[in-house]
Amino acid sequence: MNQKLFFFDVDGTLVDDKSKEIPQSAVTAIRSLREAGHLVYLNSGRTRCLLTHEMEQFGISCAVCGCGTEIIADGAVLLERRISRARGIELRKLLTELKLDAVLEAQEAVYFSNRPFENEALMEKLLAFVGSYAKTEVNALTDNTFLFDKFCVQTVPGGEKDPRIETLLQATPDFEGIARGRGFYEFVPKGFTKGKAVNFLMERFSIAAEDCYVFGDSMNDLTMFQSNAAHRIAMGEHDRELEAYASYIADTVRADGIAKALRALHVLER
To answer: This protein's superkingdom (predicted)?
Structure first.
């Protein structure tokens, strides 16, 4: 049996976006992959502190964190890219001047911009969700003591694109700005993507394209679908831009899409 390499996005792929629950079928399937000797990685926009729960639930110790800004294999850090202290201070000042709702994501904790939030209901809901997983701090734009790896901003959903986003994009040429929909934008240091992490690990472990599988649903998974992996599985509910690259469309998360896809692709026995 050839050892295979699997990458699973988390939100919208393993975790149902509506219920925020992980189907037991997905847990069982991924544990079965591990027991069969395959390499299994979470590949998420979340930083490390937000993946601990899922890693424990699936019984794995390998992850691509923060859209490729950190790669962990069996507890060892293979790659790490943190925003410098000086650049972090500049970004805090810029976000404060633009009065944007912001989330600074670090390995150890997640830091929120100052209350009152412009998009109060959305941000308070996000804060409560993140706080159930990891340490959080509010009013963090005045705290220059911590390093962080990436950041996100929330604008008013729907309607015209917020002109502050264009200002932010022009001021951050060292970042890739990803529109996630509903007025939410993710900013990742340039040169670091989920897809580059896939290629990095394929080369490191000498995994052939036909033995590599990526699972995702949203635009921040696009680079995974553009990677060297031969099997690119889009979940049943997915951004349409992924379809041009997908080799297989799975069922939805809540309809056991992960387990069904692995069986259909003859990776797991029925």
So the answer is: Bacteria
